[in-house]
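Onboarding guide, step 5: your first structure request.
Type a short instruction followed by the sequence, for example:

Predict the 3D structure of this protein.
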Amino acid sequence: MDDLTFRSDLVLSDVHLHTPRQRHLMVRLNAVGQPVFLSQFKLLLDKSHLSSENKERDFKKENVRHQNKCLDGLNAERSTGKEGSPREETAALLDEDGDLEVVRKPQLLDAEAENCSRDKVCPIILTRGGNVLEEEEEQGNGCSDLVKIEHTMATPLEDVGKQVWRGAFLLADYILGKPDLFKDRAVLELGGGVGLVSILAAKAAQSVYCTDVGEDLLDMCERNIALNKQCTGPAGRKVKVRVLDWLKDEFCMDPDARHSWSEKEIAELYDLTTVILAADVFYDDDLTDAFFRTLYRITHNLKNPCTVYLSIEKRFNFTLRHMDVACEAYSHFQETLNDLVNIKDGKMTYTVESLPLSFPQHILYERVEELELWKITADVASERSRPPETERRQEELCTE
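The system replies with structure tokens like these:
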């Protein structure tokens, strides 16, 4: 099985769709039969002295080098074979019956591929037998500048959390570029997906709760944490994977359910958390509403003020309602964000600001202009910020 054929009703992340000559290692099938791939992402740290052009060139060289190293270690054959060039492979061939076969999509040379970063390609699937997690642990994973992530590709909309998205890279870049903001903090990630952001947050944070829904997804997240012990500590002790359903008002505390919460963990969450993260989870209006309800509920119960960092990518589509290209999911996100700021309940205040994307890029991805990063500060309402009805009620209580 050399080529991937995707159905039109599947969703494919741009991280994989626009990666020239990228080859993905398929390591297993997950619980629902979807192919699971292993990708390596090189982190370029301490490069502040380089110009932006040199950084981008460095990104490409480092990623190509590590990708080739991974493939060589797996004894994978190069797409050009031992002899000949990609151009020679485009020559006409005869099949067993003598019919002429034409290769319609010749592969690009490395130099050409480097200049066509937006080309759409079909990745080659490479398989490896055995338990990939055990093999990785035997080989050791001590490279602090390399992150390994198991993920799927081309999933239905309900499984997009199993993919890697540019919004996660953007938020991870911010964390890597400003580690002091997360140093020794207790962090909660909502909609953590495959765990990329939580894993990199653990490089600075004291502890991280990575939350999402779906046993299959949470199992994949746990495997990624185990694959990146250089970030998460032995046995992933810094990162705990827990289920958190935004459509439910209570934490799952079923002792028979995997990834459920204990009373102690919930108490720790409320007593210690000062940072909340969410990367590219605003693609469905109902889920966006559920997210902000969950955020409101959690921040109301936190013992300390909290800072929330949200990444989002605006995705434009033609809609019949507008008869024009629109970004309805982003518009709904903006409306719900404004509703949060305008809440006047006398308990909490929320302030919002859009963060400039001027921080350095530590991961190779396309930081498109549609990407945005938002900061929400949640704090206990002061006396002045309380609404008049709350103040009147307090005066009545004092009089009584």
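Each response can be followed by summary notes, for example: Residues 11 and 154 are 5 Å apart (CA to CA).
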